[in-house]
Every structure is written in structure tokens, then in C-alpha cells.
Specification:
The protein is an alpha/beta fold and about 220 residues long. The protein has a single domain, classed as 3-Layer(aba) Sandwich (Rossmann fold), CATH 3.40.50. It contains 8 helices and 9 strands.
Length: about 220
């Protein structure tokens, strides 16, 4: 037990799965979660810090940081509010983690992330990826999942109709949909990111096709 990690976004669909995996890893001495409110989880080796992401306090010494903060424009209420979470808050955590000694970063991004995209959502995701790549991390592992599946209601989040609709279509069409575009379980994204981040070197991007169980085992 000699590693210390930090996680922002532990109340989200992928973030909660990342948290469970980190807590189950016997090589990790402590998991520091940064959140705006209590996360409803209490475990040995878990330390929850209630923070203002616009004014983060100094972080304890850490080795790796995972960024899973995210929202939607509908929930955030505006493009500016969306950007404050998905770009500004994630980047602030990354910078604070570097000061605390973090060497590697794992990011939950999105399929289509591109800083030059005409789609606002994809553009913000791409801008964050590029901003993180400019920071002096030894490794940056980026997961770009397609539509996510998982029980959002169990986390107190509203369901997303597009995710449910595409999941239903995918069950019918199955193999006709390329693996990169099929809905993917949030737990599979978390597993891939937690497996790849600690050994990443440079910038590594994982698409949904690579994170599906069969592709990972091939």
C-alpha cells in the first residue's frame, strides 16, 4: 500500500465506478475524493474533501489523479456553466494535482472530443484534452466513451433519454453497429481508465471499441 490517488467526479456514472475500483486496489494507501458535497460513501482509505473547485485548497501528496467531473448543458443551465464544470474545474484539479506531485492523469472525456469542433460540447471536451496535454504529466490517459449505460437513478441523477434510446437500438442492431459507436457500460470505461493510467506514458486515447470487454481481452 504505497500509492495515493485523487479523484474528482466520484458522484457521476463513471466516477463512482472509478472510486469502487480504486478502493478495491490493495496497492493504494488512500483515495482522496474532491467533491462539492458529501458523496454518501464511507470506507477505510477514503478521504473526502468538500471543496470549491473555483478556489481549491492545496492537495495532499498524490501519485495519480482521475478527472471525471462532467455535466450537461441542460443540467448546468447554460454553456458558460457547462464549461465551468467540464473544462475549468477539471483543469483546476489537474493543476493542483501536479503541485501535489501527481505524475499521471486519467480523464473521462467523450467520443468526438475536438477543440476545433463546431459542436460546443465536443469542442469543450477537446479543449480540455489539449490543455491537459500541455501540462507536464508523465502520462495522460484519455477515455472517449460513446453513449454510456448504467443506473443513473441509483446515483440520484436524472435518466438521459438519448442514452436509453440508443441502448435499445443497439440491442436490436447489435454487431451492425461498429464497436466504437455502441453504447458502453460506465463500469467498462472505469476499468479501462484505472488499468491504463498508472502505466501511461505521453498522451494515450482510448475509444469505446478498445474499452469493450471483448476488445480488451483480444
Amino acid at each position: 500500500m504505497n500509492k495515493t490517488v485523487a479523484l474528482a467526479g466520484a458522484t457521476g456514472l463513471v466516477g463512482r465506478s472509478i472510486l469502487e475500483l480504486l478502493l478495491a486496489d490493495a496497492s493504494i494507501a488512500s483515495v482522496h475524493v474532491l467533491a462539492r458535497r458529501e458523496i454518501g460513501v464511507s470506507r477505510p482509505r477514503l478521504v473526502v474533501h468538500i471543496v470549491d473547485f473555483a478556489a481549491l485548497p492545496p492537495l495532499p501528496p498524490i501519485d495519480d489523479v482521475y478527472l471525471a467531473l462532467g455535466t450537461t448543458i441542460k443540467i448546468a443551465g447554460s454553456q458558460a456553466a457547462f464549461r465551468a464544470v467540464d473544462f475549468t474545474a477539471n483543469l483546476a484539479v489537474a493543476r493542483a494535482a501536479l503541485v501535489a506531485g501527481a505524475r499521471r492523469c486519467g480523464l473521462v472525456s467523450a467520443m468526438g472530443a475536438n477543440a476545433r469542433s463546431s459542436v460546443f460540447y465536443n469542442r469543450v471536451k477537446g479543449e480540455l484534452e489539449d490543455a491537459l496535454a500541455q501540462l507536464p504529466f508523465e502520462g495522460l490517459a484519455i477515455a472517449r466513451p460513446s453513449l454510456l449505460t448504467g443506473d443513473r437513478e441509483a446515483l440520484g441523477q436524472p435518466g438521459r433519454s438519448l442514452e436509453k434510446a440508443f441502448e435499445a437500438i443497439s440491442k436490436v442492431l447489435g454487431p451492425l453497429i461498429p464497436a466504437t459507436y455502441r453504447p458502453i457500460a460506465a463500469s467498462h470505461v472505469a476499468q479501462s481508465l484505472v488499468a491504463r493510467t498508472p502505466t501511461s506514458k505521453g498522451r494515450v486515447v482510448m475509444l469505446s471499441g478498445e474499452m469493450q470487454p471483448r476488445q480488451r481481452q483480444a
